[in-house]
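Morning - FE2/S2 (inorganic) cluster inputs below, output right after.
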Amino acid sequence: MFKRIQPIDQAIEIHFEDRLIRAQPGDSVAAALLAEGVKAFRQIERSNELRGPYCMIGNCFECLVEIDGRPNLQACQYRVRNGMKIRMQRGLRGGGSGDQS
Ligand code: FES
């Protein structure tokens, strides 16, 4: 369970799946989602296993999501933007040759 060290003082709103989430400008997408209790960011196609962020520094690729219609983006490497629409990544998309996990 993740918890913010300080409360949000300038909230913006992002969307994850059908859920509205408040975030602090400057948050990474991964940090904003984790702070709101989201654990599953992607689903492995073959096994349906749910995965979430692990390293938070861009190395593990466990945090892949779809942001504003663009798949295969690392949630830990993108900053939140007001109105951003984030969806869970299901398998690999857009030229992937299959789920490598
Ligand atoms: S959490 Fe490891 S790449 Fe994003």
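Note: Residues 95-101 have pLDDT under 50 and may be disordered.

O.
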